[in-house]
Design goal:
Elements lengths: L6 H14 L7 E4 L3 H17 L4 E4 L2 H9 L7 H4 L2 E6 L3 E2 L5 E2 L6 H9 L1 E9 L12 E5 L4 H13 L7 E4 L1 E2 L2 E2 L7 E6 L6 H8 L5 E4 L1 E2 L5 E5 L4 E6 L6 E4 L15
Parallel strand pairs: 1-2, 1-3, 3-6, 6-14
Antiparallel strand pairs: 4-5, 5-13, 7-11, 7-12, 8-11, 9-10, 14-15, 15-16
Bound molecules: ribulose-5-phosphate.
């Protein structure tokens, strides 16, 4: 591992290396978004270059598409691919049932569509993302711009009857403007502190007109790989049963560290 990497990047990199081991020749792979997915794309590109691994990637954001293209990973659209073997993506929080909060990078809509269209979803994260209950990280909800303030009011009303501890809702800003997603929608961040029933909340949020999708991923993640700064990773594979702890192979080429994460 590079001594110049921060401990958090070393943890993310360890998880990314382990996840890319799951990619086999000829696979169609969903490519996640964020600073952990950044390392996954770097590592995948390294295998493409060094081993001649053939993969086709489906990016979950314009940022990921640009990076993957730059790294020489062949890309296609989800419709062209039809169905994917695997998606590898990061998360903002993950609970003991492998339910997730995603969307910190505003790509939750494409991320959920791509992960759902995959045989397996592998989530990679530094160990600090694991929580007893979801909700400390604000829950992102993507809404269409038309009538977004009305949609926000409906979300706030809905939260009154939900098993949550906080109810503040803020529209996400970037550079002094309301953020626009790749689909040109806005993001409402729900400061809930504690989500008692993620499955129920995920279902009812999507019933509000104007809500396009929410960042709760319930029953979508199959494998969780948590990395630590010393290179160790913990793998929890729902198909394989018990969790295992292994040391990732952190042998690295110099060029992978030519630039830092997002
Ligand atoms: O959901 C996401 C983007 O929409 C990311 O996967 C999530 O925000 C985690 O990002 P990072 O790996 O940078 O912590």
């Amino acid at each position: 591992m590079s001594s110049e990497m921060s401990p958090i990047d070393r943890a993310k990199y360890a998880a990314a290396v382990k996840a890319v081991d799951y990619v086999q020749d000829g696979m169609k792979v969903g490519l996640g978004t964020g600073s952990t997915a950044f390392w996954m794309i770097k590592r995948l590109a390294e295998r493409v270059r060094d081993e001649g691994l053939r993969v086709t990637g489906v990016p979950t954001s314009s940022r990921t598409a640009a990076l993957a293209r730059e790294e020489g990973i062949a890309l296609t659209t989800l419709d062209e691919a039809g169905w994917l073997d695997l998606t590898i993506d990061g998360a903002d929080e993950v609970d003991g049932d492998l339910n997730l909060i995603k969307g910190g990078g505003a790509a939750l809509l494409h991320e959920k569509i791509v992960a759902t269209a995959s045989d397996r979803m592998i989530v990679i994260a530094d160990a600090a993302k694991q929580v007893a209950a979801l909700g400390s990280f604000p829950l992102p909800v993507e809404v269409i711009p038309f009538g977004w303030q009305t949609t926000q009011k409906l979300v706030e009303e809905l939260l009154e009857g939900m098993d949550v501890l906080g109810r503040e809702v803020q529209v996400r800003q970037m550079g002094g403007m309301k953020l626009l997603t790749d689909q040109k929608n806005h993001i409402l961040d729900l400061h809930l502190k504690h989500i008692g029933n993620p499955r129920q909340l995920a279902m009812v949020l999507n019933q509000i007109p104007g809500v396009v999708e929410n960042g709760l991923f319930v029953d979508i993640c199959d494998v969780l790989i948590l990395g630590q700064a010393d290179g160790r990773v913990t793998v929890r594979d729902l198909d394989a049963g018990a969790a295992s702890e292994v040391a990732a192979d952190l042998t690295e080429p110099d060029n992978i560290f030519a630039e830092g994460g997002e």
